[in-house]
Input
Amino acid sequence: MRDIKYRAYRKDTKSMHPVDELVWDENHNLRWVKIGDHLLDIKIIELMQSTGLKDKNGKEIWESDLIKNSWDGKVVEVKLRTGCFGFHDNDEWEVIGNIYESKPISDIITTDG
Output
C-alpha cells in the first residue's frame, strides 16, 4: 500500500508546496492544510493528490499536472475521476507542467482528457 501524498497551490502567493498535514474541523470537514509552520485555510489553496506514478523521466505525476504522450504529442490534464486516475502506460507520458503554473493553458491542452 502506498502513502497518499498531497501538494497545494497557494492562490495568494501563486506557489506550489508539499502538504505536511490535512486538518479537519469538529464536523469532519477539511478546513486547513499544514505547510511547514503555516496552517492555511482550505479556501486559499488548491489541493492535489499524487497518482503514485512517475512519468518516463521519473518525475512524480500529480492531479492537475499536464502530461504529454510520446506517440502523438497530445497533452492532457491529469484528473481524479470516480476514485482513480484514468491513464495507462505512464512510461510513455511526460509531465510538462500543471494547470496552475503553466500559461496559457488553452494553447497547451489538446483534449479534455
Summary: The mean pLDDT is 87. The longest strand covers residues 45-54.
